[in-house]
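Following up on my earlier message about flavin-adenine dinucleotide. Here are the inputs again, as you asked, copied directly from the submission form:
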Amino acid sequence: MSEQSMSTDVLVVGGGMAGLAGALALRENGANVTLVERAPEFGEVGAGLQMAPNASRVLKRWGLLEKALEIGVQPKHLVFRDAVTGEELTRQSLRGEFEERYGAPYVVIHRSDLHRVLLEGCEAAGVKLVNDVMVDNVETLNGRGIVHTAAGVDYEADVVIGADGLKSTLRSLVASDEPVSSAYVAYRGTVPITSETPATDLEDVVVYLGPDCHLVQYPLRKGELLNTVAVFKSPSFERGEEQYGGVDELQAAYKDCVPAVQAALANLGTSIRWPMYDRDPIENWVAGRMVLLGDAAHPMLQYLAQGACQALEDAAVLQDVTAGTVFTADGVNPAAWDGALAAFNSARAARTARVQRTARIWGESWHVSGLGRTLRNLLFKSRKDNDFQYNDWLYGQSGEGLPAPVAPRVDSNAAA
Ligand SMILES: Cc1cc2nc3c(=O)[nH]c(=O)nc-3n(C[C@H](O)[C@H](O)[C@H](O)COP(=O)(O)OP(=O)(O)OC[C@H]3O[C@@H](n4cnc5c(N)ncnc54)[C@H](O)[C@@H]3O)c2cc1C
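Thanks, got it. Here's what our run produced:
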């Protein structure tokens, strides 16, 4: 240990959605938590994010749902359309029975807004937040995690949470794998909703399904902004080119789509392209006193809109398994961390692996052509709006690997 080392109960590496959620969850249990982030400032790039009830229930647990709702949108429906004909294939109502069944709303929110809600939650709870810290490695010595940083300042903690994202450095402690490219590339953008904006589906999440491409649109910021995401298979990736998925390919990918889809391409920012990666599921996320969380543990393709949602679930389950074991009424019991990490890993790995695998298959079904497309469309059209058979495993309130049901929050400021 260097002389400059700093000691804490929990050290979180990474200030994305997963790191902030993990930090807040353990702080809620009473831990002293320090979160370090390599970027000079906290924040998120990108546009909108769909937050399904399995994640909004977690915000509800932490008393943050109201804040998210103040700046987000509760869409009326999730609508699937064929991108070539524009025909509606199926729709899922997202309010009423849906919300009652899953105990929380479906919310679409700007990424930077959700990130800020979590960041402010951490600040208010007393998480120590530190920027400009690049973590190089973590080792476990005498039952404590030692975090080595590029600047040579070490941290030491009872446990280290590796929430360092898809390209995680800390994942190499448990696996020697690499991110897997899906050959698909996304472009995203948000534009103001004005009187010129086509009025169709403006209160819904709409997904246009096309051969080797799809396009998603939904409103953000109380309906002031329109979020658009276009995702397509890159021919230059298939040819083995390193820089794949340029703007020329974007236009070409949608040439057979209806005018509404082609017009929506004008809403996209083209300075950043987002190659889509995931990884194969792994069973073990724990190395000594280091555990992975969020994309570092289970990066997934975005088709189920669940990456951040699963990170919130992770955090809530970590909160559950450490309450009363590591963090007790008598104080912190660091010896209980090994059992708690094993319980967390075992609760979460199977569920997140299922989400990772299902996301791949779900994406494939979106991009089919020919007979596959005909059959997909028939199946989608035969589905009734109140059919929850495909949703329950993902959004349901109880099941293997899920956080405990939301308990009503006790407001400490309320008059006795
Ligand atoms: C196009 C697209 C659409 C998506 N849509 C949705 C959606 O609708 N709903 C949903 O739930 N999910 C969605 N996702 C997934 C979601 O964005 C991610 O799963 C989520 O943001 C991952 O959060 P994270 O904190 O695990 O990782 P990240 O956001 O990558 O955060 C990792 C953090 O760690 C920091 N870091 C990395 N290495 C180090 C280091 N060595 N030292 C210190 N700091 C480090 C990074 O700077 C970063 O801040 C989508 C993803 C994409 C690409």
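One observation from looking it over: The first strand starts at residue 6 and ends at 13. Hope that helps, and feel free to reply on this thread.
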